[in-house]
Give the backbone structure.
Amino acid sequence: MIKMAIAGCGHIAKKHAAALMDMDTARLAAVCDIRQERAESLAGRYGAAAYGDYDQMLQDKNIDAVIVCSPSGLHAAMGEQAAAAGKHVLIEKPFVLRPADGVRLVEACRQNGVRLGVVHPNRMKPIVQALRKAVDNGLFGKITHAAATLRWNRRPEYYRSEPWRGTRAFDGGILYNQAVHLLDLLNWLAGPVSEVFAYRATRMHKIECEDVLSCVLKFSSGALGLIEAAVTVYPENLEETLAIFGAEGTAVLGGRTMSQVKEWMFSSLSGEEAVNQASKLNQTGNAVGHRDILHDFVDALLCNREPLVSGREALQSLRLISAIYDSAARHRPVQVTMPGGAQNE
């Protein structure tokens, strides 16, 4: 039985707490929030201990692992504190906001002998797993280009509901808080990316960060790509789409939250076979959530293995996002570099 704690009792913490209630191999032992009343409210619902001080909670020997659900800008420091206290760490998206912080956190967990996982549950969707298999088996032939499109809506009240939202220091921007899952998949399935050229703008919301961004990119394979991310779409979320195109295949995953196969065509499949595969994948159910990522993380601790999305894995997407923002700030193409400074080849 893995005893879990949640740090940060906002909206997303409730999903983790509910997911833990359905598990036989883990339970919620404690929660923490600087707003004591929020911690007590969540703790009371699930029979957990409530803390208003993070350091104090980390001293609790009844805790094996910490789920960090704080504002994005606090993830790195809180993750390092948990590692230093000997607690395994599961960090909500986005991982951290700076590659150097990510490298330091990965190393802190290694030195303290604890596991580090990041919440990217979309990798577990059956349609995504099928797409990964198609890529690995070479069904696309030579990949020519890929595209990630996020056309969502965030109303002004969304940013007003929490003072950290929309800020550079604690939110990070649209690629960190809305499009990060999609970019993780783009990089995982078609990457790595070697170069980017991006533009960003703040067109509708009174926030520090952008609310719309466009990017052209070059993959290390020579393929090209496009990213479009916006939270300005009227009147509500329209689509989250990932598309990969190759000499011998086309695949498009879409829907409002990328839960459907829209196109599925390969030279190795007859038209009927392709339609049947797409139909089966769409019937499987693709509403993968926090329960799935928690099951994987707890299983990783029990089996002494890396989680599906480790800290090192999450660094790949972090480097991509960092390069995109760097390009938008400098108004020129930027190479995507590894933590040590080398370029993706």
